Amino acid sequence: MGIGCRRGAKKELLEAGLWKVLEANGAGIKDVAAFASIDLKRDEAGILELVDKYGIPFYTYSAEELQAVKEVSSRSKFVRQTVGVDNVCERAARLACPRGRLIQPKLCTEGAAFALVKKCLRILIFAGTTEGRLVSEKLAGLPVDIWVSTATEYGKECILSGASPEAIHVTAGRMDEQAIESFIREQDIHLVVDATHPYACEVTKNISAACTACGTAYLRCLREQGGIGGKARERMVWKKSVGEAVEYLKATEGNIFLSTGSKELRRYTEIPDYRERCYARVLSTKEAVEASVALGFQGAHLIAMQGPFSKEMNTLMLRETKAKYFVTKESGKAGGFLEKAEAANATGAVLVVIGRPEETGMSVDGTVEYIKGLL
């Protein structure tokens, strides 16, 4: 609770203002961890009487320290001329609770001004998938500060399309382990949620290592499985890696429809006559298209579109390309794995599936409930 007041303000008036602010925010005196003000008020009788009555710590800061706080909701020339800083209560509350969020901007009462800052969880979400977007949307509005990291500008746009820009901070650009560690320390992150793609093993490794180095809590958010089992799964060709899938496809004949992304397309160039046999579906980004073209996938053999795709769209593409093999990752429900399997079954194509790496973690809802339990 940040407090600013006129010299000689009575304890009764300060207390009335205090309760007005608390009630307006659905809080009680037991929720107040500290009072804070400028050092000129360290001997202010009215404030000291409040401190004594409720047994709450009282911190004071110099005008120079208060001025270092950049964000305030309002500024007063009169207050600045009087004490050397234009907003005492908000700045003092922020200094006393650096890991907090301002929930009550400066509120003036008779002879005083108050502000409330609530300590909140600072969360960094690595969102390379639908799961990262869903977690950030479900957490928005809670007493948490959310940073979301995406590898590309396209990913950033996807996150911002589903949540208010004011609710989260989104940054785009790939980070290695050292960069992740620096970000965690600079932003004083309390919890990291790894909601990257199920196959982004190196990224997950870097995130986990950075959290260990910083002593920061780490939580893996997993993509929901595709819901295909029994004989349907048995009819598919399962491989542990793209390399294994390539070796399998080398011994086959007929066209191949690839939907495993642009990053690993180079491996498919090992297939004899890949320029004629293979059709690659990649994201509709400049980087993905340019990388694919550089490898020899172009013209009718390169399809740049944003998924996930319906059964009908997958079926159409398989038929148009006369594909006998449909290569995909086990992309789960969010990645349209069921629709891919249904399309392969409808066209008679063999579904070649790159299995997921084994890992443990929580679902989207489980992740959100876990975080709520920390608040």
From TrEMBL:
Keywords: Cobalamin biosynthesis, Oxidoreductase
CobE/GbiG C-terminal domain sequence ranges: 1-116
UniProt cross-references to InterPro entries, sorted A to Z: CobE/GbiG_C, CobE/GbiG_C_sf, Precorrin-6x_reduct
Any one GO molecular-function label of the UniProt entry: precorrin-6A reductase activity
Keyword Oxidoreductase among UniProt keywords: yes
Pfam short name (any one): CbiJ
UniProt-listed SUPFAM superfamilies: CobE/GbiG C-terminal domain-like
Biochemical pathway: Cofactor biosynthesis; adenosylcobalamin biosynthesis
EC id: 1.3.1.54
UniProt superkingdom: Bacteria
Protein name stated in the entry: Precorrin-6A reductase
